Amino acid sequence: MAADIIDGKAYAEGLRARVAQAVPGFVAAAGRKPGLAVVLVGEDPASQVYVRAKGKATIAAGLESFEHKLPDTVTQGELIALVRRLNADEAVDGILVQLPLPRGIDDKAVIAAIDPAKDVDGFTIANAGRLAVGEEALVPCTPLGCLMLLKDRLGDLSGLDAVVLGRSNIVGKPMAQLLLRENCTVTIAHSRTRDLPDVVRRADIVVAAVGRPQMVRGDWLKPGATVIDVGINRIEIGEGKTRLVGDVEFESAVDVAGAITPVPGGVGPMTIAVLLRNTLAAAFARAGLPAPEGL
Ligand code: NDP
């Protein structure tokens, strides 16, 4: 029987609508809109597309969007000085520095300069540490989006076996921490893992975030498993055409899984929606106001 398709696009639209509904409450209490500042350095076309999409979604949800576009000749010192100005700016609740940064600029030093209370990407060591020790934290958008889809599908995740493929700081590791917080038994697999199919076959939940097109095949999966495919890979399909695929071979996985996210239309749309959610949550927290239910 074919798996249910998890509609990330629809869930993301609902989340964006919930954010938009909660904004007037913040405006009434704080006397201003919540604000997201996005910093883009250089001319990377993919980054420009993302930043444009983030700006549009921010305004559509009723938040203030501040875009800072800098040439790739900017120095690390100048960039950090901008981050510090945004830290001090009362109108800014969230700061996002679009990665990757041009060569010669140390991502880690720039991220470290962001005030953790405004770190809506959840990339600072302070927020990663809070997540690891189980304290309230701003959590990276993509894994938090994956968790929302999983809870929407499965409800209580307690006791389930989860395998996270990939151990990056922005997806794999925070994903594993979130699943642990939900009382899953979590295995983190990576490029040195032995017998990956065998590890994956034990899992009730599989989150694939490796950046390897269609690596996870249907015959690796436990029948009925819930599969979240984070991968976004562009592959050539001949005649100069390309298409987007995930890290999971959808065509074979759909026959074995209980539910699966498609690519595109699964995890991808969640990332910006969660960014808006994190910005609003940061705004409420900075203003000392209780966050609205259901965010
Ligand atoms: P990274 O390249 O930072 O990390 C990839 C991870 O996968 C590493 O931990 C690596 O292991 C592991 N890995 C690589 N090859 C294998 C293999 N053959 N077997 C097992 N593990 C392997 O990637 P990201 O975490 O940044 O992103 C992962 C994917 O998710 C990409 O396709 C990216 O485009 C996508 N993505 C999608 C987002 C969205 O909005 N939907 C947002 C962010 C990312 P090791 O540590 O040993 O090297």
User: H/E element string?
Assistant: EHEHEHEHHHEHEHEEEEHEH
By oligomeric state, this entry counts as single chain
- Major sheet size, sense and barrel closure: 6 strands, parallel
* Uncertain stretches of 5 or more adjacent residues: none
Ligand species: NADPH dihydro-nicotinamide-adenine-dinucleotide phosphate
Instruction: Give the C-level CATH assignment of the largest domain.
Output: Alpha Beta
Could you tell me the mean pLDDT? Answer: 97
Number of helices: 10
CATH superfamily of the largest domain: NAD(P)-binding Rossmann-like Domain
In order across it, which strands form the biggest sheet?
1-11-8-7-5-6
Structure summary:
With 295 residues, the protein is of the alpha/beta class. It is built from ten helices and eleven strands. 41% of the residues lie in helices and 17% in strands.
